[in-house]
From TrEMBL:
Lineage, highest ranks first: Bacteria, Pseudomonadati, Pseudomonadota, Alphaproteobacteria, Hyphomicrobiales
Organism whose genome encodes this protein: Tianweitania sediminis
Gene3D superfamilies membership: 1.10.1040.50, 2-enoyl-CoA Hydratase, Chain A, domain 1 (3.90.226.10), NAD(P)-binding Rossmann-like Domain (3.40.50.720)
GO biological process: fatty acid beta-oxidation
Domain 3-hydroxyacyl-CoA dehydrogenase NAD binding: 299-476
Entry's family note: In the N-terminal section; belongs to the enoyl-CoA hydratase/isomerase family.
Subcellular location per the Swiss-Prot or TrEMBL entry: Peroxisome
Protein known as: Enoyl-CoA hydratase/isomerase family protein
Keywords, in A-Z order: Fatty acid metabolism, Isomerase, Lipid degradation, Lipid metabolism, Lyase, Multifunctional enzyme, NAD, Oxidoreductase, Peroxisome
MF terms in GO: (3S)-3-hydroxyacyl-CoA dehydrogenase (NAD+) activity; enoyl-CoA hydratase activity; isomerase activity; NAD+ binding
């Protein structure tokens, strides 16, 4: 007897309630429970129709992802869905929350599907490196048509209940919150109206439509191949849908199963599943007591309406939180507000925002020049230019006007948050909230806890981050925090590799082939070469022994070639076109540089480019872990996937390093450190220790 699925009765309706918090994942006990309770309902002469629904906040969020990679435990979900479809009594799925993956597959095994308006449905398996494996690839095309099904399954994007109704995935959408009432009422209507059974597997009309266009699958394959660069499972999805068109249901299901097992065994699946859990783990701050309750945040203020401040203000307005935007001068304020409006207008033009919603969001942004207007804010985020003196001045003023208990955060990308906190009389309320550019788009939020940041402040900035749709990760105070500190290592290698003989294009190609959306130098051109140049200058001035010697990229910056914003950087750009093109002038600058430095250019193999760029980052990641700046390797992975385009299917830099094998990385770093006489490439103590013990980063546990 399984506890996770209960059979309840309401007149002639048998209600199967799946109760496996928090998201009713379809683990073994749920699968068995569905079979057992369904058999019980079939055997009960009082029950004429069955409703399946989820207890708690949602229907079913899919297969239990924690079971992947372990020996399969019967019954298989596919068999459960087939059994539901073959049930002797009609079955209705009543959906609230999310019917994702295996959850939607269960629903598609039912005769009818009713949902409440706020529900979402989807087959997001592709985001985990797999494909629907319980009949989804065979049944969705029968309901929604081949084209829509391929699109849904290869992007993994969920559909709202209304969209799903239009697509034919759902039969009815109703307003309301009582899912049990909705399901029972629908089932009673089916009985009263004497509706016929409607097994999805028997439907053929939508497949017939697709068969009339024989080129459709090939076209879809090409689109998917282009869109899902390097990914394995999207193409397997197309193969499975092709089977739905050409084979009877049973054979199609068999083919799907074989493709599913193939996807399950790929390194991409391992990487993506790691990324899924790492992100959720990162949401739980290591060492933070569960008693630390978030403070209420109803009103926000942002100081500085420049590149970052404007985007940050939008993040809050987008979710309905009023935000006061403070500038030092009227002209800067006007400019900032105009940029925000332009951003919204462009979203409206693309059809992704209603004009009325734009007005609502603009109405939530309250521009001001007066600190007095910040007195009501529960959270203030400072985003003025990067100067310790200026930031301390702002925090000193904030200390005077902010209400007691208000959280004072800085968006600094490099400065010491402890020192900034020292400008106030309430360092316990001060933290970092490091957004990434463009702040209204980028998912990553590096939250920074300084030495005195209060536990409830830490809890609040994580909760607020989630509320505005970010992926928040808590880090400690150090130069560049986690992401930029590791990036600086990669930048340094990339610059050196070019000095030694590689071309910038070759370095970028290795990184894009690896799966980054952009190479190192194309990214510098986008962010502005001047940013890194100023940082390197500062570090040299400060006498940092680890500062990189002046280099060819600095020379480029000295010539005013800052990247896309000045029409050219490492690459040349045609007006209005962001495609990087190799520039002979830059090639010459590099050649001249090498000559002056007496560097005889050598052939640099792709393998060396990859190893030096990425192993240097992994090595820095190990130091960051050793120092406790990041609590877990998965936190670093989450940062790199969400903030720097590290391919999620490789799981993030630390997971990837484990897959490569730490002894291999240690050996390579030692080789480069010796051969090139670069002590900074020596493996860190933690990396050496783990390698010598035959362990990976995954063996590390977070400090409690
Ligand atoms: N299996 C196991 N655990 C799951 C899970 C799943 N399918 N989905 C969510 N969880 C866990 C999370 O790890 C988290 O655990 P934690 O509290 O211990 O960290 C908890 O449930 C809550 O999850 P979230 O923090 O993500 O909660 P949200 O409310 O933000 O989001 C959600 C809910 C939208 C359902 C989101 O969790 C989600 O997208 N889940 C994955 C959905 C998915 O990919 N389903 C397909 C699975 S593969 C499949 O079905 C194969 C089939 O075709 C055979
Ligand atoms: P910016 O120069 O575009 O904007 C700064 C704005 O602050 C300007 O509009 C300026 O008028 C205003 N300002 C200056 N002093 C002020 C004061 N005392 N009171 C009110 N407003 C004042 O700078 P940007 O790029 O937005 O950077 C802001 C902060 O964000 C910096 O700390 C930077 O390191 C950090 N950051 C920047 C990223 C980027 O990619 N640009 C990414 C992540 C963090």
């Amino acid at each position: 007897m399984s506890e996770m699925v209960k059979l309840e009765r309401s007149g002639k309706v048998g209600v199967l309630v799946v109760d496996n918090p928090p998201v009713n994942a379809l683990g073994q006990a749920v699968r068995q429970g569905l079979l057992d309770r369904l058999a019980e309902a079939e055997a009960d002469p009082e029950i004429a129709i069955v409703v399946i629904l989820g207890a708690g906040r949602t229907f079913m969020a899919g297969a239990d992802i924690r079971e992947f990679g372990k020996p399969p435990m019967p019954p298989a979900l596919g068999d459960v869905v087939d059994r539901i479809e073959a049930s002797r009594k009609p079955v209705v799925a009543a959906i609230h929350g999310t019917a994702f993956g295996g959850g939607l597959e269960v629903a598609m095994g039912c005769d009818y599907r009713v949902a409440i308006a706020s529900a979402k449905v989807g087959l997001p398996e592709v985001t985990l490196g797999i494909l629907p494996g319980a009949g989804g690839t065979q049944r969705l095309p029968r309901l929604a048509g081949v084209e829509a099904a391929i699109d849904m399954m290869t992007t993994g994007a969920p559909k709202s209940a209304r969209e799903a109704l239009e697509l034919g995935i759902l039969d009815e959408v109703v307003e309301g919150a009582d899912i049990r009432g909705v399901g029972v009422a629908f089932a009673e209507r089916v009985l009263a109206e004497g509706r016929q059974r409607r097994r999805t597997g028997d439907l053929d009309e939508r497949l017939q439509e697709a068969r009339r266009d024989p080129g459709m699958i090939e076209k879809a394959r090409q689109v998917v191949e282009k869109r899902s660069r390097n990914l394995v499972s999207p193409l397997l999805i197309v193969d499975a849908v092709e089977a739905a068109l050409s084979l009877p249901l049973r054979e199609g299901l068999k083919k799907e199963r074989a493709l599913f097992v193939r996807a399950l065994e790929t390194p991409q699946r391992r990487g993506l599943v790691h990324a899924f859990f790492a992100q959720r783990e990162a949401a739980k701050v290591a060492g933070l007591s569960p008693d630390a309750r978030p403070r209420d945040v109803g009103e926000v203020a942002v100081i500085g309406a420049g590149t970052m401040g404007g985007g940050i203000a939008m993040c809050f307005a987008n979710v309905g939180i009023p935000v006061t935007l403070l500038e030092s001068e009227q002209s800067a304020l006007d400019r900032g507000v105009a940029t925000i409006r332009r951003n919204y207008e462009s979203t409206v033009k693309k059809g992704r925002l209603q004009s009325a919603d734009m007005d609502k969001r603009m109405g939530l942004i309250r521009p001001t020049l007066s600190y007095d207007d910040l007195a009501q804010a529960d959270l203030v985020i400072e985003a003025i230019f990067e100067s310790m003196e200026a930031k301390k001045d702002v925090f000193g003023r904030l200390d005077k006007v902010a209400k007691p208990g208000a959280i004072l955060a800085t968006n600094t990308s490099t400065l010491d948050v402890n020192e900034i906190a020292s400008a106030t009389t309430r360092p316990q309320d001060v933290a970092g909230m490091h957004f990434f550019s463009p702040a209204n788009v980028m998912k990553l939020l590096e939250n920074v806890r300084a030495s005195q940041t209060a536990p409830d402040v830490q809890a609040t900035i994580m909760e607020v981050g989630k509320r505005i749709g970010k992926v928040p990760v808590m880090v400690g105070v150090c130069y560049g925090f986690v992401g930029n500190r590791m990036l600086h290592r990669r930048t340094r290698e990339a610059i050196d590799l070019v000095e030694e003989g590689a071309s910038p294009e070759a370095v970028d190609a290795v990184l894009t082939d690896f799966g980054f959306p952009m190479g190192q130098f194309a990214m510098s051109d986008l962010a502005g070469i001047d940013v890194g140049w100023r940082i390197r200058q500062e570090r040299r001035k400060a006498g940092d022994p680890d500062a990189q010697a002046p280099n060819w990229l600095d020379r480029l910056a000295e010539q005013g070639r800052f990247g896309q914003k000045t029409g050219g950087g490492v690459y040349a750009y045609e007006p209005g076109d962001r495609t990087p093109r190799p520039d002979p002038a830059v090639a010459k600058l590099i050649e001249d540089w090498r000559r002056e430095k007496n560097v005889a250019p050598r052939i640099v193999e792709e393998q060396e480019i990859l190893e030096r760029c990425l192993y240097a980052m992994v090595n820095e990641g190990a130091k960051i872990l050793d120092e406790g700046i990041a609590a877990r390797p998965g936190d670093i992975d989450t940062i790199w996937i969400n903030g720097y385009g590290f391919p999620a299917y490789r799981g993030g830099p630390m997971f990837w390093a484990d897959e490569v094998g730490l002894p291999i990385i240690v050996e390579a770093l030692e080789k480069y450190a010796a051969k090139l006489d670069r002590p900074h490439l020596q493996p860190s103590p933690l990396l050496r220790r783990l390698a010598s013990e035959g362990k990976g980063f995954a063996s590390l546990t977070a400090p409690s």
